[in-house]
Amino acid sequence: MEKFKLIADEVDYVVAYKPQGMSFHSEDGAGFVALLTDQLGYPLFPVHRLDKVTSGLILLAKSSEAAKQLTSLFSARKIDKFYLALVSAKPKKKQGWIKGDMAKSRRGTYKLVKTKQNPAVTRFYSCSVATNLRACIVKPFSGKTHQIRVALKSIGAPILGDLAYSGEPADRTYLHAFCLEFEWQGNHQHYQAAPEGDGAFGHLLAHEIFASWQNPSQLEW
């Protein structure tokens, strides 16, 4: 079995790279957390999750106490998360806020509605990186299920490969958890990993815009 890549191995937690197409929890077989636990040889405590279709950074605590503290930081929105996505349709706007309540739709999906009682709040920037291909850097300001996938669909630009949300067919869903930033024990922590593997993300990695997205927290959010 292939080894998962560790981005960081800290005293209280690890940051690991989850491949796309792998369930976070064990469902039809061992999931990412169980397999990484076997690889490292000690218990891991999940404090957030990624959809099966999403690749990228996952933070896992090494103790229940660290898990409690990290979960508290996520709940208080004190951990900044930045994602990369590719879309093939032209969005209604090239950057800005996407806000609205999320309502259940069909077959386990969601939709954005106009009310804002408990809204999903997302901000993004985008840039054309190839013919009929636009890259987005996205920051969610709330933590809703499928939030980024729903947000981009709501502006007419579903994520490439995201068939559940009417994306163009592709070899994967092009959504990647790119960067995590937060304060821990008095230190500022910054973890980042570009998407791995072949495929359409290569157009973004080769484009000059990617250099300007290397420190995503420095963008104007």
From TrEMBL:
Signal peptide bounds: none
Pfam families: PseudoU_synth_2
GO molecular function: catalytic activity, acting on RNA; pseudouridine synthase activity; RNA binding
BP-aspect Gene Ontology terms: enzyme-directed rRNA pseudouridine synthesis
Domain Pseudouridine synthase RsuA/RluA-like: 12-153
InterPro entries reported for this sequence: PsdUridine_synth_cat_dom_sf, PsdUridine_synth_RluA-like, PsdUridine_synth_RluA-like_CS, PsdUridine_synth_RsuA/RluA, RluA_PseudoU_synthase
Gene3D superfamilies cross-referenced by the UniProt entry: Pseudouridine synthase
Family label: Belongs to the pseudouridine synthase RluA family.
Protein name, UniProt field: TIGR01621 family pseudouridine synthase
Organism, scientific name: Pseudoalteromonas maricaloris
